[in-house]
Amino acid sequence: MALLELIYTSFAEAQNDTDDVQNILASSERNNVASNITGLLLFDGARYIQILEGESQDVERLFMTISKDPRHHSLELLHKGPILERSFETWRMAYEALPKGLLSDLAENMAVYSLEQDGEPLGVDESFGAKLNGMFMDAIAAE
Ligand SMILES: Cc1cc2nc3c(=O)[nH]c(=O)nc-3n(C[C@H](O)[C@H](O)[C@H](O)COP(=O)(O)O)c2cc1C
Fold this sequence. Notes:
Elements: E1 3-12, H1 18-34, E2 38-43, E3 47-55, H2 56-67, E4 72-83, E5 94-97, H3 102-115, H4 128-142
Bound molecules: flavin mononucleotide.
């Protein structure tokens, strides 16, 4: 069974809606254990970036569900590819709120970088998850 990481960006339907985020995280807590999905959700008040990790069919199924969710729009897939190990092993869905505007550059860079990648599974230090995890840990440390 192949492990997959999938990263997308989208825009929140309601700006700064922390209720939406709380409800989304509650669903993630419930469902991601059952489907063995791990990952990170970043939100800067306008834009989401989320990484989903898991068995490829589980990740694809959840992404289909999330794509149809009316709480966000304009989804753009930034990266999808095989990985050797998860970067958010212990997190059902880690969450970090960031200052407004911070995610635009990240989304742009990630889309460009992804095009340069070939089809080999990425190792533990090479995956997109590993990069996001590093940023996430830095953000926590700075709080
Ligand atoms: C930005 C965003 C991220 C989401 N992430 C997850 C997730 O990681 N896991 C999940 O089960 N649902 C997630 N959802 C919610 C799903 O779209 C869907 O509402 C939910 O899975 C339905 O399950 P429930 O009936 O148990 O709440 C997300 C929604 C949005 C808008």
